[in-house]
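Subject: Interface between my chains keeps coming out wrong

I've been trying for a while to get a sensible model of this assembly. When I model each chain on its own everything looks fine, but I need the whole thing in one frame so I can look at the contacts. Pasting all components below, labels as-is. Any help appreciated, I'm running out of ideas.
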Amino acid sequence: MTIITERKETVLKWQEELAGSSPEEVLEWALKIFDTGRIMQSSSLGLEDMVITDMVRRISPDCGVFTLDTGRLFQESYDLLEEARLKWKTPIQVLFPESGAVEALVGEKGPNSFYYSLENRKECCRIRKIEPLKRALSGLDAWICGLRRDQSVTRGTVDLVEWDEAFGLVKINPLAFWSEEQCREYVREHSVPVHALHRKGFPSIGCAPCTRAVRDGEDIRSGRWWWENPESKECGLHKK
Amino acid sequence: MTIITERKETVLKWQEELAGSSPEEVLEWALKIFDTGRIMQSSSLGLEDMVITDMVRRISPDCGVFTLDTGRLFQESYDLLEEARLKWKTPIQVLFPESGAVEALVGEKGPNSFYYSLENRKECCRIRKIEPLKRALSGLDAWICGLRRDQSVTRGTVDLVEWDEAFGLVKINPLAFWSEEQCREYVREHSVPVHALHRKGFPSIGCAPCTRAVRDGEDIRSGRWWWENPESKECGLHKK
Amino acid sequence: MTIITERKETVLKWQEELAGSSPEEVLEWALKIFDTGRIMQSSSLGLEDMVITDMVRRISPDCGVFTLDTGRLFQESYDLLEEARLKWKTPIQVLFPESGAVEALVGEKGPNSFYYSLENRKECCRIRKIEPLKRALSGLDAWICGLRRDQSVTRGTVDLVEWDEAFGLVKINPLAFWSEEQCREYVREHSVPVHALHRKGFPSIGCAPCTRAVRDGEDIRSGRWWWENPESKECGLHKK
Amino acid sequence: MTIITERKETVLKWQEELAGSSPEEVLEWALKIFDTGRIMQSSSLGLEDMVITDMVRRISPDCGVFTLDTGRLFQESYDLLEEARLKWKTPIQVLFPESGAVEALVGEKGPNSFYYSLENRKECCRIRKIEPLKRALSGLDAWICGLRRDQSVTRGTVDLVEWDEAFGLVKINPLAFWSEEQCREYVREHSVPVHALHRKGFPSIGCAPCTRAVRDGEDIRSGRWWWENPESKECGLHKK
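Reply #2:
Try treating it as a single job with all components included. I did that and got this:
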């Protein structure tokens, strides 16, 4: 049995142990079992991410938080990042794409290449999100994400703790079983800052050109890459 | 007499020779006297820049055009860049800031540091605009810009051709003596694409967090870094 | 118990299990338990490294090998690297220091700064070896090294498998209990190419300015940083 | 007439004016006419380069000197660089190749690829010398080199001042008309440090794997890329 197989089995064991745990319990467990400096929260500044940052800051202020600045975010995303910085008095690490890669992409295919093909869109996600993410994850044993089961058709099987096949480390989703309503309640109760665009009809927020408002009743992630099939709507951060 | 002094004298001589020339005449002269590959247009995607790109494309399609993607532009700026790419069927070179420098700045001072002090603002301009600009200018003998005399209090003495002290090369401003109205007329007549935000009250457009709409009668550049003194409102690209 | 503590305990358990194993048995075990792509050999092109590369190539040709080109190696090191490439018909990955870091160091302190103080020497090792090594180790669960117990006063407690505190992954030293004579016999028997400088009195070979020949009977690593105390003679790759 | 044509004509005029000038007169003229910060000496640490650095230091200590550390130099080259640093109490700027480019080259073609084909050799020179040189020359109007007419079959027409077609700036060769003997006399008289390998039969010194000693009576540059035709023996720094 290889190390990875063993780790996957450990993760299955942990899934059983953590079954029914609250988000805070999951985080307390994770921040105890994974060593400081080898676990971080990855925040996309969404509702769920803000909930988790608040929980993490209460449980273990030493746990780092990073976010990916793709160079194409809404100004409202930067404003929220600033609010977070001021509230929690702790720097959120920002990863930015390599200039050479962006210059080559935009120079060759223009600044809006992602609208033309799924391949182009994934190339853009790779340069602006995945490569910087890899730098952030290097040296970590686990990362904490804000995935929830009822967010999207692509996320129905998300678990509290998973083996992340794509990046080769453990992934913790403390809110896997929470509803959007529970998240909203948490931020109200704890005065957690949230993205200004949520109020304007954007439930899930990514890059500005690839995100739009959705109508009531539409799938939460239907405003992301709205011109693509529902099945392809992941940027590569959360592959199955 | 040093080489630079000599070049400055040559520039003064050129100023006399070019006095009264039309923008097209200035460009024809510049694209004949400066060798291919050693002169480029620097476009900020403003009204004047679009006018010049159209003129340049007619006179000498070989002349390169570059723009600075600071990572904080309006989506409308990217859309215009895409329109330009499709119209002129030629890539506009894009310069993007170094990831390490942006990560250090934002990690330390947050994403909106420029609002807190003039020093911070200039640091952000330096990392996102000046350093990439220097890469673009390296190896050039001249750059073509869209400065006009009546744009701002800081631009009243702009000339058709100047020695650029800050970057050490010749600067061509073919529209130095044109009015905004003349630019508008040109784009109407030649169906040149323009920035969508002009219609929404933004006469001068830079980074999203540092640009706002102005009221009728206000100075054209009053929407740039609106919280600063009028005298300090240059990003360093066009120092006197 | 944290993950790292658990891993350390696993390593202790492995130490017991592997006690008395031959180098080949250790490697067979390691290449089975650690997943392809997550274990690599780190070669400094020394006698021990060449032995291990030969064993690794026989057991699992998929296992990658990397070496650190510090920019200050002996030409004989490059010649051996080339011989290895031709013999095993497989690329050895080469890591090279970041140009900016080397330019800053040499520009400020000159090219031979390491002779002036221990601090300088460690700074040079950090830029030319440790930083590139970190890039090589990112994403690995284990690395295979050529440490032997009787190489030096600093290596007397080396084990077949260890938890590498400095870099946070498992370290495999298949030759921990071999003598130099056993290594020499192996390369003779298997026609493994070895460093040309071994024949000229260099038992341990690093960067050219920091390595010299030793006299018979001197400690094997006494030719490395010969002006320093025996206790400080590690470059940071193999910290205790 | 374009700017470059005009510059070439100016250079021809300068050639006439400088005819018969001593190296010091050429340097005095160059350091007066080209502005500080826009002219540098490029030193390969050869006999001629050391002569020029000494002259430059006497005439204008502000004039910068740079050298290219290819990552494959002789230790004796670094030792001379250190002697120079101590003697002239001024840093010599060092340019180092980009790690990514070296890693890709060596990873794919091995560390000694240059022996296999002229194309390979030029690729190696490009990565280790030409690209770093371009960074050094960016922003300069002139560079000072140590070329002499009788150095090689490829250098018979070298002049005191030339237009450098390859890199687009003026090239000053103050020693164009000096003999090797004159250089030797100068260093003796002024106690200028010289490369230790000159005494071992190396008249022209480049990268360690591409330089060898020559026999008495052989062409001075016959020890550089000795396996190639005499006509191809330039690395690209000094193209005609």
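Reply #3:
Confirming on my end. Residues 118-137 of chain C form the longest helix (20 residues).
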